[in-house]
């Protein structure tokens, strides 16, 4: 991504589109998501240090695990500053060759918030949702290490994992007014453990039968999808229309099924060290 246009593009997208208080104990503002029995068949268990999760059959085969070293302001771009953390990159993932890799990150929450103001803001968004904030695109947390802007938020759902809670939704990021497409769309989860010590981010590519295959304006839009405006420039009305179409779709109609991705997230367990 071209850094020299990032500020201008982020400002444009946001037109359309630190201190952390003490952790708020999750309240049961919404019941946990109930998954159909057929979607929770499981495969490999992935473990690194005190983190483990189970891969639903068909979603992925395994994961590459990594203990990522801390990155300071002297070593990294502002959005990439972070404490040491864990990274899981899913292998044999159901959809291949997408813009985003299928990854799950686990950070020490307080350390990340202190090191990176953007992370502090997004962690607070997660806390607000856990505490019962109304789900809306404006309330959704952003990926703190993406140097781009979030364009949509659809299929928003609060879900629990083994010892915490968070929110998942479908989104796409860009540094310009990009069409929503199957190359860049992904399932995004952010959550916190109940004790507030660990912060989880998942970015898992998904595709939909109503989206074009890539961001090129000439790419055909399938039946049921939202065509670009006549001038080829997406705007607020276009993004709202795409969001509504994706919201109307059954979670099992996406690839991978949102039910299966939810089952993956629900299986996450982080034990105290």
Task: Set down the secondary structure blueprint.
Blueprint: H1 6-16, E1 42-48, E2 51-56, E3 62-68, E4 85-91, E5 103-108, H2 109-115, H3 117-130, E6 149-150, E7 154-161, E8 164-171, E9 173-174, E10 186-193, E11 198-205, H4 236-247, H5 258-266, E12 269-270
Antiparallel strand pairs: 1-2, 2-12, 3-4, 4-5, 5-11, 6-9, 7-8, 8-10, 10-11
Helix pairs in contact: 2-3
In short:
By secondary structure, this protein is α+β, with helices and mostly antiparallel strands. Helices cover 19% and strands 26% of the residues. Strands 3-4-5-11-10-8-7 form a seven-stranded antiparallel sheet, sandwiched between helices. The chain has a three-stranded antiparallel sheet with strand order 1-2-12. A two-stranded antiparallel sheet has the order 6-9.
Give your account of this protein's structure:
- The chain is an alpha+beta fold and 273 residues long.
- It has one domain (3-19, 26-270).
- It is 19% helix and 26% strand.
- The chain contains five helices and twelve strands.
- The chain has helices at residues 6-16, 109-115, 117-130, 236-247, 258-266, and strands at residues 42-48, 51-56, 62-68, 85-91, 103-108, 149-150, 154-161, 164-171, 173-174, 186-193, 198-205, 269-270.
- The strands form three sheets. A seven-stranded antiparallel sheet has the order 3-4-5-11-10-8-7, with helices on both faces. The protein has a three-stranded antiparallel sheet with strand order 1-2-12. A two-stranded antiparallel ribbon has the order 6-9.
- Strand 10 and strand 11 form a beta hairpin.
- Helix 2 (109-115) crosses helix 3 (117-130).
- The longest helix is centred in the middle third of the chain and has 14 residues, at 117-130.
- It is globular.
- The termini are far apart.
């Amino acid at each position: 991504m071209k850094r020299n246009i990032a500020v201008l593009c982020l400002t444009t997208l946001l037109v359309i589109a630190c201190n952390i208080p003490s952790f708020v104990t999750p309240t049961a503002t919404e019941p946990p998501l109930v998954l159909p029995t057929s979607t929770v068949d499981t495969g490999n268990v992935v473990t690194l240090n005190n983190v483990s999760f189970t891969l639903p059959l068909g979603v992925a085969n395994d994961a590459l695990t990594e203990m990522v070293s801390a990155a300071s302001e002297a070593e990294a771009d502002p959005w990439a500053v972070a404490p040491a953390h864990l990274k899981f990159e899913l292998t044999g993932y159901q959809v291949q060759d997408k813009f985003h890799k299928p990854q799950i990150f686990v950070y020490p929450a307080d350390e990340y918030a202190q090191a990176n103001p953007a992370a502090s803001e997004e962690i607070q968004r997660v806390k607000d949702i856990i505490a019962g904030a109304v789900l809306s695109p404006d309330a959704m947390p952003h990926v703190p290490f993406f140097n781009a802007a979030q364009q949509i938020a659809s299929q928003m759902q609060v879900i629990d994992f083994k010892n915490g809670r968070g929110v998942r939704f479908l989104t796409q990021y860009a540094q310009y007014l990009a069409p929503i497409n199957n190359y860049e769309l992904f399932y995004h989860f952010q959550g916190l453990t109940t004790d507030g010590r660990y912060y989880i981010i998942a970015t898992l590519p998904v595709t939909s039968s109503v989206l074009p295959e890539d961001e090129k304006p000439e790419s055909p839009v399938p039946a049921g999808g939202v065509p670009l405006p006549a001038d080829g420039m997406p705007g607020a009305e276009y993004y709202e229309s795409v969001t509504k179409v994706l919201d109307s779709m059954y979670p099992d109609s996406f690839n991978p099924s949102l039910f299966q991705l939810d089952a993956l997230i629900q299986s996450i367990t982080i034990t105290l060290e």
